[in-house]
Amino acid sequence: xxxxxxxxxxxxxxxxxxxxxxxxxxxxxxxxxxxxxxxxxxxxxxxxxxxxxxxxxxxxxxxxxxxxxxxxxxxxxxxxxxxxxxxxxxxxxxxxxxxxxxxxxxxxxxxxxxxxxxxxxxxxxxxxxxxxxxxxxxxxxxxxxxxxxxxxxxxxxxxxxxxxxxxxxxxxxxxxxxxxxxxxxxxxxxxxxxxxxxxxxxxxxxxxxxxxxxxxxxxxxxxxxxxxxxxxxxxxxxxxxxxxxxxxxxxxxxxxxxxxxxxxxxxxxxxxxxxxxxxxxxxxxxxxxxxxxxxxxxxxxxxxxxxxxxxxxxxxxxxxxxxxxxxxxxxxxxxxxxxxxxxxxxxxxxxxxxxxxxxxxxxxxxxxxxxxxxxxxxxxxxxxxxxxxxxxxxxxxxx
Length: 399
Ligand code: SF4
Ligand code: SF4
What we know:
Bound molecules: iron/sulfur cluster
Number of helices: 23
Radius of gyration: 20 Å
Shape: globular
Distance between the termini: 59 Å
Oligomer: single chain
CATH topology of the largest domain: Rossmann fold
Largest sheet: 4 strands, parallel
Strand order of the largest sheet: 2-1-3-4
């Protein structure tokens, strides 16, 4: 039978789907399966649903959309899979299909947020100012809980603070300023620019800057993701090294080669660009200060599962004299997942509460978190449980 994918939209490929041998070894690693115990909430179940559409036995309908929407795209299954199933690629293609199948009005609302605001730096900054004013006046308390728990803390002072001028000497390394990082996590940007200088680079930022497209790609907005990838390549490819201090962004920048592989004008540039990407914790920078305390470590899924980064975070902390403390939850996802905590608030809340409890159990006063989505989710869940534990990027802790 022929496949039932929506024509003209990226779709999971027959070859990728066939790498899954249905062994189920990924199931215990999947956070949504662990919460529900349902096969349809597991990687194997989601792949089976994709296969059914591929084999013409099902369509991209409401059930299919529900199964894929509930996935965090954390890729814990990919890291655990002995058959090297490219799950990240499969779920992004499946989401391109579910986005195309959504009712026009629902899609317009989702697009307005992802493409209309996050994809345009000026509008993202404007949103930042709006959030800062609302939070200063404490109007944010009126927002629904699902939005509050997914909202970063943005201050008027933080919005006014400029990033440092070029730092250090040597070959140029350029920092991706991004979208959410640019409005809510400037202290992490400043610490990363300082670390780039200490690592022997001339640390710069792009003239315009903007989103890398990770949120669009995870939401199935492939054309928007490609558009943003071309923008970032064009303005950053002159640097010898491209640095990102968000795990989701560094993982996505490294995927540009794949994202633009079928665009003859950009494929080679995208591959060369991806090869020059470094996550901020991979810089070999000596610490700027001594840290004499225990620091809990939350491993972002896009570090641990997408890039195999984990020891690097601990090395950054140990080099400064800190004692990294692993969480007792086996590195489970915190439930942030891009904008997952807005779209799937119940599952996100369950995972966020579990993560906050695991951090509190360490007794540390600070937790190292290298991804903005995780940092927002973890901070808000810690505060909801009455904890004052500080949430910081690892480089910020040693700056
Ligand atoms: S994704 Fe990998 S681990 Fe999971 S069922 Fe398929 S082959 Fe097994
Ligand atoms: S990406 Fe994460 S939530 Fe989705 S199927 Fe894999 S382990 Fe489960």
